[in-house]
Design brief:
By secondary structure, this protein is mainly alpha-helical. Helix content is 54%, strand content 5%. The chain has 15 helices and two strands. It has a two-stranded antiparallel sheet. Strand 1 and strand 2 form a beta hairpin. The chain starts with 7 loop residues before the first helix and ends with a helix. 25% of the residues are buried.
Amino acid sequence: QDPRFNPEIDRKTGYRTRNILCVPMRNKLGEVVGVFQVLNKLDGAFTDDDVEMLLLISTIAASQIENAQLYEEQRKTFNSLIETLASTIDARDPLTAGHSRRIMLYADEIAKLANFSIEEREILRTAALLHDIGKIGVRESILTKKSKLTPSEYEHIKSHVVYTRAILKKIHFSWKFRQVPQIASSHHEKMNGSGYPEGLKGDAIPVGGRILAIADLFDALTSKRHYADRMKFEKVVQILEQGADLEYDAELIEAFKRIPLDRLVLILEDENSQHLSQDDLHFLSHYTLNDLVQTLQNSNFPKDQLFVQTFMKYYFRQY
């Protein structure tokens, strides 16, 4: 009987609404954040007692909604701060622009293919974005040097992981992210103990650090440097295969090789994504990095297959 009720919904759904009670859900400032509605009371009409009960419940619900919104805002603020820090570090050298973001994307793909939980992937993404923050302690002349580093310069640049851990340990991470400093600073450790800064070996290296090591290697091999263009992909594959188990976690490399080629291209060309053909990406989504590796390594497979040509077009930026 209330003129505000629209019977059209009942007619369309076949549902019969006999009575409705609605109360606003208000936050601590008195702002309406939602509406709590109940309908079709079993034993007659709604009473004033029902209104009081629903108002109490709506207050609790509004508080929960407000807390959830606050958490989401804090999460967005945290993530934007982390991304800004990563971009600031990468901006010191134009050729490494986007490096930390690509490491994050590669690492997340590996973690997803290795069946990591959503929370584990979130922690890893944070560590990936911050893994090179210690480079603020590396001299600019060495960081942007256009020729290969001397042994002493290489030793100096290796110190960035020590700085990374020292800086990140000073940040008050929540309990959930407490492993970020250790993961971020272990991306140069090697499975055989030949890495740095601690010379950790095998399972002593955090699994997140092992993932970052693979992501960092792949990005280093497939990025343009001051002293070199993108490496031939056959050579990239050879280095990955040779490093499996000796320096890098073989199981995680196998997980990485399951990445679809469209995802690989999107990460490789993250800063040029607007120029990528959606038809090409859809086509490449049917193949994985492992398919490409097998084709390049097997002399019986024709190297001019369309998916190989399509991938190489983007890899060598011939588009």
